[in-house]
Amino acid sequence: MPRLLSFAVLLATWWIGSLFAGDAKLPPPPTVLTVMIAEARSGDLFFHLGLTLARVTLAFTLAMSLGAAIGYLMGRVRLADRLGDPWLILLLNLPALVVIVLAYIWAGLTEVAAIAAIAINKLPTAVVTLREGARALEAALDEMATVFALPRWKKFRHVILPQLSPYIAAAARSGLSLVWKIVLVAELLGRPNGVGFEIGVAFQLFDIPLLLAYSLSFAAVVLLIETLLVQPFEARLSRWRPRAA
Amino acid sequence: MRLEVDIASKTFKSAAGEQHDVIAGVAFTLDAGEVGVLVGPSGCGKSTMLRILAGLDHDFQGRVSRPAGARIGFVFQEPRLLPWRSVEENVRLVAPLANEAKLSALFEILELKAHRNHFPGELSLGLARRVALARAFAIEPEFLILDEPLASLDVALAARLRDEIAMLIGGRSVITLLVTHDVDDAVRLGDRLFLLSPRPARVLAELPIRTPRSKRGDAEIAAITLDIMRRINGAPAERDAS
Ligand SMILES: Nc1ncnc2c1ncn2[C@@H]1O[C@H](COP(=O)(O)OP(=O)(O)O)[C@@H](O)[C@H]1O
Ligand SMILES: [Mg+2]
């Protein structure tokens, strides 16, 4: 309920704002909705949204799995930490734009370059978070698993993974919001389709209803994925925690 | 099956580089079916020794020979349960071969029947200890290690749990090593007691108790306890032995 109310307030503010700013700068909600429906009818909206979503999924999965593996290794093996640390610091401080531009220059304006650039932007934060998680693993539980001769896989699944899962969830959450932002830039700069590309087109034509139609549809998809996928996943992970009253 | 222990010394190095002797000579053997009890003051090195015996710490001077490949049931000083798994899952995880009948019997004896589906965070210390005990017994251990299983429980609860442990140990041909700083518990549960000095731990005396556990009367227990207190303190114990 409070969410709906908050949403209604946002919509009302937008509408009132458009009265003051004028249709040209801020078109009212119905105008944007009409464009949205037209784009949806023609199939363009779903085409571009779908492509963007596919890029997000690929880059996110790549960065998360690679980042988790590297982070775990760096948290557990000192040598790996020493070797990896300078690279990590470099990557952490490289601006997203630089990575994207360099990727397009070196690998051409290709799909691979775009996805790699997005993944590389997310990778270092995933590594850092998972390294923290691996460092915080309980030695006491490790000893328990050793004494009771738990097989490797069982130990990973039941002893290690549950300890890492809050860190994985944190990395996923912050990583997802990072990827949402970067994917649009990557598309704007070097892809002939996707939400970022469409927003670029709308910008060049100064077509504000089109720009808002794509931005808001994209935001809606992000919101939907966060509430339907990410939040239930997090709730599942913390099922065992005694609930605060 | 036999456990042979001869630890000449164990030292920890502090961060500042100082040596810190924890064990200064502990040797004994223990046969299957025997309950050995290490009795010593807090901080004398008992838990350290158990970690060595379980093969978790190899950094010591001396020799430990365990039956090769023996299944070890370890009840750690803290329960060390997986907080994200239920009581039953915690037990089943280490003992995939244990059947339902055996688990039921264990949960029955340890009064855990009502708690199978609880998570460790919902249990009192006494209950968590029982789960740790259930886990150790569920694997049908050949070498059972109990690190202060009765510490920090109230007297009545400790007595109940002690009887339950006695029941579980009885009739099994297991090498059992119990650690405690409570002489009374040691006398009630042990077959052979090893009295340890304060840190660094040495064996001060080895005392066999010949009467079988089930036949030990309160008077006999009190007498042995008094005798041990006298040896430890070098003077008659002030404790009321009744
Ligand atoms: N990992 C460690 N590093 C340094 N000192 C330790 C370590 N573990 C235990 N000690 C020290 O060794 C001594 C014996 O500890 P412990 O074996 O736990 O005693 P207890 O007999 O109470 O079980 C204590 O003084 C403790 O501070
Ligand atoms: Mg101890």
Cα end-to-end separation of chain B: 38 Å
Domain module tally of chain B: 2
Classified by CATH, the class of the largest domain in chain B is: Alpha Beta
Count every beta strand of chain B, where a strand is a DSSP E run of 2 or more residues: 10
String of helices and strands of chain B: EEEEHEEHHHEHEHEEH
Q: What does this 3D model show about the protein?
A:
The complex is a heterodimer of chains A (245) and B (242). By secondary structure, chain A is mainly alpha-helical. Chain A is built from ten helices and no strands. In chain A, helix 5 (96-107) packs across helix 6 and helix 6 packs antiparallel against helix 8 (152-190). Chain A is globular. By secondary structure, chain B is α/β, with parallel strands linked by helices. Chain B contains seven helices and ten strands. In chain B, helix 2 packs parallel to helix 4, helix 4 packs parallel to helix 5 (155-169) and helix 6 (183-189) packs across helix 7 (218-233). Classes of the chains: A mainly alpha (245), B alpha/beta (242). The interface between A and B is medium-sized, with 16 and 22 residues. The complex binds adenosine-5'-diphosphate and magnesium ion (MG). The site of magnesium ion has 5 residues of chain B, from helix 1. Residues 46-47, 77, 147-148 of chain B line the site of magnesium ion. Chain B: One of its GO terms (molecular function) is ATP binding. Chain B: Involved in beta-(1-->2)glucan export. Transmembrane domains (TMD) form a pore in the inner membrane and the ATP-binding domain (NBD) is responsible for energy generation.
